[in-house]
Design a protein that fits this description.
This protein is an alpha+beta fold. The protein contains three helices and ten strands; from the N terminus they run ββββαββααββββ. β5 and β6 form a beta hairpin. The chain is globular and about 50 Å long.
């Protein structure tokens, strides 16, 4: 293969390697990838939330938008949902308090807009320097940088 040619990703016989470098609060919206992924955290910490492929209807995939297939990305903004229910603060330096009534109202609104999402099963955790996470092909994942960080992903089919 010449240096000027790029092979079709489907024909790779070795993992595709991606590096991710960013500041704290970098967000990767809830999405799925067509590859298996070994995610290696090198520097910093990241929060992960993962949903199995069986939860796909509940995460409300987007569709065709302006001729672009966005079905690998959820319609739900996980970051905003977490803020709504007080799981994280919109302003990290402040303590956010939510009354039970506001949380209940938010849940009703969420259920109207995205039926089944609040019952969707997920796993979550934080990866730090030296941690590796296997994300199976087709699993939905949301990622939030908790600190400045550097990560490497190894994708394969």
């Amino acid at each position: 293969m010449s240096p000027d040619s790029t092979p079709d990703r489907e024909s790779y016989d070795y993992p595709l390697i991606n590096s991710w470098f960013g500041p704290a609060d970098t967000i990767s919206p809830l999405h799925t990838d067509p590859y298996h992924n070994i995610f290696a955290q090198v520097v910093g910490h990241k929060y992960f939330r993962l949903y199995a492929p069986s939860q796909t209807p509940a995460v409300h995939p987007r569709g065709l938008e302006n001729g672009i297939d966005m079905s690998n990305t959820s319609s739900i903004d996980i970051e905003e949902t977490m803020k709504m229910f007080g799981e994280i603060s919109a302003f990290p330096e402040e303590v956010m308090e939510r009354s039970a009534a506001l949380v209940e109202e938010g849940k009703k609104e969420m259920e109207r807009e995205f039926p089944g999402f609040l019952e969707a099963e997920y796993v979550e955790g934080v990866v730090g320097p030296g941690d590796m996470l296997y994300i199976p092909q087709g699993w939905w994942h949301f990622v939030r940088g908790l600190t400045p960080s550097f990560s490497v992903s190894f994708w394969w089919k």
